[in-house]
Inverse folding.
């Protein structure tokens, strides 16, 4: 009997060594922003977030006011909506999320920003488990969220946002950006319409994910005047030594070569100009 007990004890000890150690509870006090990694699970602190001040985001005033107000209510513990920022590329969707967090976090120190990568969406429930155990409040942010054909991870996201038994924790809000209003490619939706036994129900299943976002903010291509206003605002903020005529001429030529006008194109021109002038851009 003694030998049997010793053998069992050795087996138990060996199994303990083989089993993976339980993940440590994250310390959310060390930073205001984090990146969630699904494998191995954990939160990477981000000491300096790559963002620009809210005042430099031009031509999106209405969207900015709505997102900041929604974030402010959430930070104060009041009801707030998940937000979907959709539309034209390069018009400041992700920049607005980061700027809105910075704006509100100055007044509410317990507000954290957690980025989750698109490919890790299936791990979102595990991520929320850690956040729910914290006393802080979190904006979970997914940039360029979309789903392709045969991708079923959107179902778990739907359940987390509103539909599941638990839903999202009270201290978590979900913000996402996408070029697609319904997060699905048009041909995927059309395929469901043409092949499903009940086309209406199939379409409803695909597009209902976007309905989980109570706040929809649309971003559209900017005019030439808006584009030049962006360039001018950047140049003034960073004190770039260039005349108004030089800025206008070069910025228009830059947008022509890119075939587009957007906040991203304006920023890329300003970076090129600052490099040629030998000036630094300290955001």
């Amino acid at each position: 009997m003694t030998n049997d007990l010793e053998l069992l004890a050795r087996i138990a000890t060996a199994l303990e060594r083989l089993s993976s150690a339980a993940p440590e509870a994250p310390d959310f006090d060390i930073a205001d922003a984090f990146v969630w990694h699904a494998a191995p699970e954990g939160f990477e602190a981000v000491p300096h977030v790559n963002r620009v001040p809210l005042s430099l985001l031009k031509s999106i005033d209405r969207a900015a006011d709505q997102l900041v107000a929604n974030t402010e209510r959430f930070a104060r513990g009041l009801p707030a909506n998940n937000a979907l920022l959709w539309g034209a590329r390069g018009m400041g969707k992700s920049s607005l999320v980061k700027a809105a967090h910075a704006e509100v976090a100055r007044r509410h120190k317990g507000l954290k920003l957690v980025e989750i990568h698109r490919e890790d969406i299936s791990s979102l429930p595990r991520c929320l488990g850690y956040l729910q155990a914290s006393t802080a409040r979190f904006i979970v942010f997914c940039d360029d969220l979309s789903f392709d054909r045969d991708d079923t991870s959107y179902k778990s996201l739907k359940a987390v946002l509103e539909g599941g038994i638990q839903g999202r924790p009270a201290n978590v809000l979900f913000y996402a950006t996408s070029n697609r209003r319904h997060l699905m490619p048009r041909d995927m939706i059309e395929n469901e319409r043409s092949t499903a036994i009940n086309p209406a129900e199939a379409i409803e299943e695909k597009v209902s994910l976007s309905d989980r976002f109570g706040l929809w903010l649309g971003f559209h291509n900017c005019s030439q005047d808006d584009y030049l206003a962006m360039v001018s605002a950047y140049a003034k903020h960073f004190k770039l030594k260039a005349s108004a005529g030089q800025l206008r001429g070069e910025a228009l030529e830059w947008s022509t070569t890119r075939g587009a006008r957007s906040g991203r194109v304006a920023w890329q021109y300003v970076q090129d100009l600052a490099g040629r002038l030998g000036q630094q851009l300290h955001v």
